[in-house]
Amino acid sequence: MLELYLNRPEELILRDAPAPGTVKENQARIRVTHGGICGSDLRVYKGSIPYATYPLRPGHEVLGVVVEAGNEVRHKVGTRVVVEPNTFCGECDYCRRGRTNICEQKTPIGVSADGAFAQELLVEGKYLVSVPDEIPDELAILIEPLSVTVHALKKAAISPGTSVAVLGCGTEGLFSIALALFKGARVTAVDVNPRKFDVAKQLGDVRVLHPGEIGDELFDVVVEAAGVRSSIEQSMRIVRPGGEIVAIGITGEPVEYPVMKIVRSEVTIHGSIIYTLEDWADAIGYLQDPRFNIRPILSKIMPLTEYQQAFADALSGDYAKIVLRF
Ligand SMILES: [Zn+2]
Ligand SMILES: [Zn+2]
After folding, report:
1. Which of 39, 83, 159, 309 fits a 20 to 30 Å CA distance from 6?
2. 107-116, pLDDT tens digit by residue?
3. From ligand 2's centre to the CA of 175, what distance in Å?
4. CATH of residue 164
């Protein structure tokens, strides 16, 4: 089988490797059909995640078909599936409360363990989610990154008429825009790069602004999806008293925390990390509704052999989601 492999940062190869061995009772063999390139794959590629280990197979957004299943796996051969790429133990205090996304044993694949960019994978049945027939491949491959924003946007009160600012129009920002629009919010998309607005505007009636154009305006909900200091600090300036910030962007930089405003104006800041399987089910529910529009977020599907170009395009910042066809 073929797999993508990083010998070290920036040294990405496509190589032939032995297919994974025997399927255990609780595992299924997946023939991967599509893999989405994520921002974290790009950071692993560039070597900018300190806890990433090399050599490493990148990738965690995959769609495939079950080709062999152990006895304990309820997904039958031939089922189209997506893979939950973060392990959870199911037994710790957090898992028992249904918060598998903050499990003590969580290991994200493709960063500190081999990832999913291979033509065949062995995956435990508990990490498989079957895809309904009416969701086409090009939308099914978006279920994982969409679930991140499904989880995040549940944290804040968003209903028809809520004013929502989304800071950062990368893929998570774009999914947040689509979901906030679907919930009936009035959405303002903010980015330093005006080229990012092309896709944002295709998602629906979205106002677009450069961060410098916001002025004194205040928003009920601010989704911080840029993950840079200036944007995180702006999120706290532009949230209205009693409002909510949903923080999904991450930076290692120190950030100024306006304690006076947060306390005196009763601002709530929600951190949000990945998802639980409940969010995946909800993401699939959204995708089954024809009014839910995220198709513009898929920029290109490229053959696996064009992986160099696909990574270069993804790194350019000129596209939204780029997907490899395995
Ligand atoms: Zn991802
Ligand atoms: Zn756990």
Report:
1. 83
2. 888 998 999 9
3. 27
4. 3.40.50.720
